[in-house]
Structure formats: C-alpha cells, structure tokens
Amino acid sequence: MVGPPPLTGIKVLEFAGLAPGPFAGMLLADAGASVLRIDRTASVAVDLKSKDGVDFVKSLASKADVIIDPFRPGVLEKLGLGPEVLCGLNGGVVYGRMTGFRRDGRYKDMAGHDINYLAVSGLLGLLGREGEKIQPPWNILADFAGGGATKDGRYMAVGALESPFFRALAQGLERTWEERRFDRDNWPELRELLTRTFKSRTRAEWEKVFDGTDACTTPVLEYSELETEPEREGDQRPVVTLVETPCLAVDEAKTGDPRRGQGPGVPGRGYEGFTLAPGDGAERVLSDWFGWKKGRDFDVQNGGLILKAKSKL
C-alpha cells in the first residue's frame, strides 16, 4: 500500500471497558485513526456520573467519527449517553456497540465473560472427546474460566471473576464464600464444594437459578440444541457467521453476495508510539480535535479534565 494508513484523520472516541473494546481501538489506531479513550475516574478522565462529565463527553462525541461502546445495553443510556443522544449530536458518527451475548436474546441484560459466550453459542460443547470432560480453549484461561458438571452429566460455565459477580454466584449456589475466596488455603475445599454443589442439580435446574442474574454462570449448550429446541432458536446463535477469515462474513438472513469486510488488513507494523497509561496523550488529542490548550480551555483536577466555560466546541 502506498500513502498514509487508511484511517488517517478519523477520530475515534472509545469508552474504557474489558478487552474487546481496547482491542478494537488498538486495531483502529494501527490503521491510522486518532483514538481517545474515556477512562474510569480511578485513573484519568471523566466522571460519567456528573453533569460536567456527561457534557464533556457530548462535546467529544460531537467531533468524533467513531464511538466504541463496550457496555451492556442500557448502561450508557442511563447516563444520558446512549446512541440516540450521541448520534443526535453528530449525525455522521459511526456508533459501534460491543456485544458478548446477542443484544436481542435472552441473555442480553446479563453479565458475562468469554467462557459464557462460548458456552451458550454451542462452541464450548464441541471441544473435547466424547464421554470426557469439556476442555476450554487455552486462550481464554487468562479470563479465569471455569465450570462444573451437573447431575445429568452436562455442564455449567462459570466466569464470576469480579466480586459482584462472585457474590451473585454464591447467592445462587446458596453459599457464603465471599470472605474465603481470596484465601489460597481454602481453594482446594472451595473447589470440592463447587464440584459437589453443581452435581446436586441438573443443568436445566441450574439454568433456572442463574438465568437473568449477573453470576456469569451459563449452560454449556450443544450446538444441536440451538437448531432443534424451539425456545433456543435464534436466541444466541450468531446472526452473522464468519467464513474463511474474519474479513469475510455471511449474513444468514440475507440472500445474494456475502457481506465483506475492508480487506485482509493493513500493511506495516501499526501503531508504533509509546505505550500509554490512562490519561497520557489526552492534552495532545484535545489540541488536535478542538484546538484547546491547557489553562485556557481546560484544567486537570483530581485526575479529571475540567472544561472552562469559554471553551469553543
């Protein structure tokens, strides 16, 4: 390829979230885009629960070409920053929403991790030998995947890593483990308790317990179940199926030519700047996007950006 990267000049506003959001932002930066991330208040950034913070994000969105939303449906809507609001401020913006569970399916309002998405899509049930325990793919172990066999010889997938999700798991299992979960000496006992507890009920019974909760605990479905059980048809099976490479997708609900991506990728090594910590580079991006200067248009207070009234958007 001759010339600048294809996304040079494109402004991307990314809300900080788990791995898929930053990964998408990284790919766009590799292709030449200017990516500005809204981080959590514990690091740099913007207090999204304050009116000033919300107004500031709206200002950024009005100049962005792309917005990356990594949250569950309704999270940004509750803050007044949903797609209807931000797209209303900027009619040309591309609003990209991340998804683990389908946004129109039964699990859309539930918390989850990679192992849960694999479990209910039928993919996890394909891994392993017949009659033996399912083997999760090694590349998701960093996401702290786990699970348990049930009374009827099936499985539940567990991804309750964060404390609120673990509390929901313990509540569903009718156990009080929160104070003991970080004591390594208790882990063998907890592992045995989890094993025995999951084996005390069938998969269907556990599914009723955890359906609609934030325990990150979902059934491991066999792919055939998605095709033969009416209540599961069209629920979590992907509408878009990848064929050959991630750059070639087929929309099964359409006819004619498959929907294609932008090609096999971008030549070169992508983004080669310094590794950035939260907040690094923000002043430069605000200067590039808006022509703002620190002290004249904004200040930094308690790690957050404070807009001055005279700032021109």
UniProtKB/TrEMBL annotation:
InterPro entries: CoA-transferase_III (IPR050509), CoA-Trfase_fam_III (IPR003673), CoA-Trfase_III_dom3_sf (IPR044855), CoA-Trfase_III_dom_1_sf (IPR023606). Pfam families: CoA_transf_3. One of its GO terms (molecular function) is catalytic activity. Belongs to the CoA-transferase III family. This is Alpha-methylacyl-racemase. The lineage of its organism: Eukaryota, Fungi, Dikarya, Ascomycota, Pezizomycotina.
